[in-house]
Design a protein that fits this description.
Length: 306
């Protein structure tokens, strides 16, 4: 089916790419399947499978939310009209409506684990809401040394499930760009990775995927999302014989001006790529870029760095 556009509309659509790309309602099921696929032959296979198991629980929670949208319509409208993220992570993490999501996650997660994983689960189950809230606040503030590393994926999973569910419950969000290119317009959290999309009205455009709510927002290509420089950007991928030069499905946009980088998935080269899963499966690229002196500013809430 095609739509005939008037000249004015053609110009408008040419200069105004859709600002948002919202995740599908089954985002965590897709992520779990992708992680299980990437786990095959990966040095971190067991870890990727554990995260996949957590994603399946996240999907259960999104399908049967333990709590509703914590932001009243009036507050949503006020935020949006002032250009503020309606699901602001820094205030909502303190207000604590996500704690019931963590409790539900702990109830759904298969508790037969032993060893370090079993200990982490026991620590979480024994903790009270004020302790849990403190870990959540620290994690979203990037203060990883204030959260035991083994707890990070569980706290991160609960936070993500809550925020993604709230994002999907927002009535047709008309969000405006945040103050910084790398900041989510829905919740104000930093981007986790970029995705160059390959379908429909989003074809060929770059979106940044939120580390917390999985909202994606448009940012022009070939521009550092941190310092906005376009000069001498370099695109680095892992050496891989399976891909022709320039056809790697995951490349890091490295900026020599601010010495930062952001990974990007190119869906035209691998349509099944999923930002969080493919990020975790390519930690070797982070190690290499770290050795080359580049800094990673993008959090992945399922992994404590280092
Ligand atoms: Fe977000
Ligand atoms: Fe830069």
């Amino acid at each position: 089916m095609s739509t005939i556009l008037e000249p004015g509309q053609i110009e408008a659509s040419a200069v105004m790419p859709p600002f948002l790309h919202l995740p599908p309602a089954n985002l965590f099921a897709l992520r779990a399947a992708r992680l299980e696929h990437l786990a095959e032959g990966n040095a971190l296979g067991d870890y990727l499978r554990l995260i996949a198991q957590l994603c399946r629980v996240q999907q259960q929670l999104v399908d049967n939310p333990p709590g509703g949208l914590p932001v009243a319509e009036e507050r949503q409208r006020l935020c949006i009209s002032h250009g503020l993220p309606p699901l602001a992570a820094d205030s909502l993490v303190r207000e604590g409506p996500w704690l019931v999501w963590l409790q539900a996650l702990l109830m759904h997660f298969d508790s037969e684990a032993s060893g370090a994983l079993g200990e982490a689960l026991q620590t979480l189950r024994d903790s009270d809401d004020s302790q849990r809230k403190g870990w959540g606040i620290a994690l979203l503030a990037g203060q990883y040394d204030a959260v035991p590393a083994a707890l990070v994926p569980f706290i991160g999973a609960a936070l993500q499930a809550a925020w993604s569910s709230w994002l999907l419950a927002l009535p047709a969000p008309e969000l405006k760009p945040a103050g910084s290119l790398a900041q989510c317009p829905a919740c104000g959290s930093p981007a986790m990775a970029g995705v160059v999309r390959n379908r429909g009205k989003h074809n060929g455009l770059r979106y940044l995927a939120c580390s917390l709510c999985a909202c994606e927002w448009h940012v022009v290509r070939v521009k550092c999302v941190y310092c906005e420089s376009s000069k001498d950007l370099r695109y680095t991928s892992l050496e891989d014989d399976r891909h022709a030069p320039g056809k790697a499905p995951l490349r890091a946009e490295c900026c020599p001006a601010c010495e930062s980088y952001l990974k990007q998935n190119y869906l035209e080269n691998d349509a099944a790529a999923e930002p969080l899963a493919d990020d975790l499966a390519s930690l070797a690229l982070d190690i290499r870029l770290d050795e080359e002196g580049f800094h990673r500013l993008a959090p992945n809430l399922m992994l404590a760095p280092g």
